Input
Amino acid sequence: MTATTKVNLLGLTQPQLEGFFESIGEKRFRAGQVMKWIHHFGVDDFEAMSNIGKALREKLRACAEIRGPEIVSQDISSDGTRKWVVRVASGSCVETVYIPQAGRGTLCVSSQAGCSLDCSFCSTGKQGFNSDLTAAEIIGQVWIANKSFGTVPAKIDRAVTNVVMMGMGEPLMNFDNVVAAMQIMMDDLGYGISKRKVTLSTSGVAPMIDELGKVIDVSLALSLHAPNDELRNRLVPINRKYPLAVVLDACRRYISRLGEKRVLTVEYTLLKDVNDQPEHAAQMIELLRDVPCKINLIPFNPFPFSGYERPSNNAIRRFQDLLHQAGHNVTVRTTRGDDIDAACGQLVGQVMDRTRRSERHIAVRQLGDEAAPSASAVNRT
Ligand code: SAH
Ligand code: SF4
Output
């Protein structure tokens, strides 16, 4: 058996791993033992699995492997934020960011290399789509982050207490692999993270929100960014397919299924003079009137040639106050890891663009440079 045909055990959920052991003529309980070695102890070598006999270890070595994505670089910011660039099987690179906060550590995980949805203010979207990450490549990001805080094979200190699927890519466009990885995150044999502390963020792939509700119970975040369809069609093109009313209905259904006081997180990237005016706040209040939610405002994080600007602190505070006065719970996301380009929407990786969108984007830029209109005029039309 060649290396390429070995089964990668890193991305298998407990039932899948039980099935694997059965398929090689072994007992199902081996799955629990091996999962603990992989996820609790960060082990990638069957030899270190001391409660597994030599014969089985050899059998496993012949037909299986434990392989995370290759680490290309690891940066640590002055504020403790860590960023990894990892290479996935398609050859593209994606980014993972760890953000330490008092009493918790949040890992921002990527689900795709690039993204096909092309939101106008997102650098990942500007790179086009290359590939879906496998379940092993997704959970592998949690595995790598935790391992960086402990010594293998000693039991690893769980540095990652929260996971947000807010890195590169649209998680609902890579449904099966994202669901499997989130199941491992929540499994006690995996990372034992509670369902409230695993959050999937979506730009609004409405039918898949319903599918998600059928198979898993995690927290949901909707990237709203505009309070009316006309503006949202421009900022978040998937809105043309699933307009606000359809997406919000799906979110309401998802949240009501969860019961027990769970709420939707509404993410809203504030773009200067585009969606940050009092009229937008007023429309948002009306739109979210009957949606149990908390609102997270994300001041735009600039990247070259984006064509957008971050609003002033006063404008951000004014927007927050208006929502707050209407009774909303509103937070403003602070930028972390600025010195290592680890902020939301700045994750660039190194995507081999199958859609050739980045080439078109560059062409538009050059056209813009020659004709010398402002960058914003180029990108906002
Ligand atoms: N595809 C998913 C998750 C990844 S993006 C989604 O869109 O929800 C995570 C969040 O960062 C989203 O709310 C996204 O809109 C926001 N974002 C993207 N680019 C940004 C930028 N340049 N500045 C601030 N937030 C940005
Ligand atoms: Fe994709 Fe999310 Fe970026 Fe939109 S904001 S392009 S859905 S990663």
About this structure: The chain is about 35% helix and 20% strand. The domain at 70-367 is CATH 3.20.20.70 (TIM Barrel). The first strand starts at residue 7 and ends at 8. The chain has a mean pLDDT of 89.
